[in-house]
């Protein structure tokens, strides 16, 4: 188990576009995914992108277990998504609160497509193709933004809807992406 340090907003590595994975058989890719999973779970995150631990590759993971403290979130199975391509299935955008392990202690209201198709590859290089909506779609958009050097505060339409989690949602424990 290797829990890695998560880079915080202000680190220029979070603003760089990530490179596609070319070698799915490498030990380095397998180790990266294990470290990402260990890090996400240790920090109780809902998702993590490789650039957040300083690796500029197009790898994201996400997982939402059913959690009574987070009743609005549907369950999302543990997923490794490599070299993702997103296709919105709706032009409708919905605002929702997001947090991020790279922006600890804060929440912001972010517009996302309500439904989308995501394609890419799993950890073994097998094709992945899912159409999802709601919170699952939101998490994917948040994580894939990290591969483009975009952090969620850059997408907040009205910065009055950005603040500290313990002030916005006192007494609640919320997951970060
Ligand atoms: Ni994030």
Structural overview:
- The chain has 177 residues and is of the alpha+beta class.
- It has a single domain (12-168), classed as Peptide Deformylase, CATH 3.90.45.
- The protein is 19% helix and 33% strand.
- The protein has helices spanning 27-42, 134-147, 165-168; strands at 47-49, 59-64, 76-88, 93-100, 103-113, 115-121, 127-133, 162-164.
- Strands 1-2-3-6-7 form a five-stranded antiparallel β-sheet, sandwiched between helices. Strands 4-5-8 form a three-stranded antiparallel β-sheet.
- β6 (115-121) and β7 (127-133) form a beta hairpin.
- The mean pLDDT is 94.
Fold-level CATH name: Peptide Deformylase
Strand content: 25-35%
Radius of gyration: 15 Å
Estimated structural class? alpha+beta
User: Could you say which overall geometry the principal axes of the C-alpha atoms support?
Assistant: globular
For this structure, what is the CATH homologous superfamily?
Peptide deformylase
What is the helical fraction, as a range of percent? 10-25%
The appropriate CATH architecture is: Alpha-Beta Complex
> Strand sequence of the main sheet, in spatial order?
1-2-3-6-7
CATH class: Alpha Beta
Q: Helix-strand pattern, N to C?
A: HEEEEEEEHEH
Distinct ligand kinds: nickel (II) ion
Distance between the termini: 20 Å
How many domain regions? 1
């Amino acid at each position: 188990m290797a829990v890695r340090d998560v880079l915080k907003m202000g680190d220029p590595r979070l603003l760089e576009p990530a490179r596609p994975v070319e070698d799915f058989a490498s030990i380095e890719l397998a180790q990266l995914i294990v470290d990402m999973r260990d890090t996400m779970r240790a920090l109780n995150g809902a998702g993590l992108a490789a650039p957040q631990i300083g690796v500029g590759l197009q790898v994201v993971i996400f997982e939402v277990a059913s959690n009574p403290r987070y009743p609005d979130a549907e369950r999302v199975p543990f997923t490794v998504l490599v070299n993702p391509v997103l296709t919105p299935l709706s032009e409708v955008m919905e605002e929702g609160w997001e947090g991020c392990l790279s922006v600890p202690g804060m929440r912001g209201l972010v517009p996302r497509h309500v439904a989308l198709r995501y394609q890419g590859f799993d950890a073994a290089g097998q094709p992945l193709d899912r159409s999802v909506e709601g919170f699952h779609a939101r998490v994917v958009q948040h994580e894939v933004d990290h591969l483009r050097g975009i952090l969620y505060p850059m997408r907040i339409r009205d910065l009055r809807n950005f603040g500290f989690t313990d002030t916005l949602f006192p007494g609640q424990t919320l997951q970060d992406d």
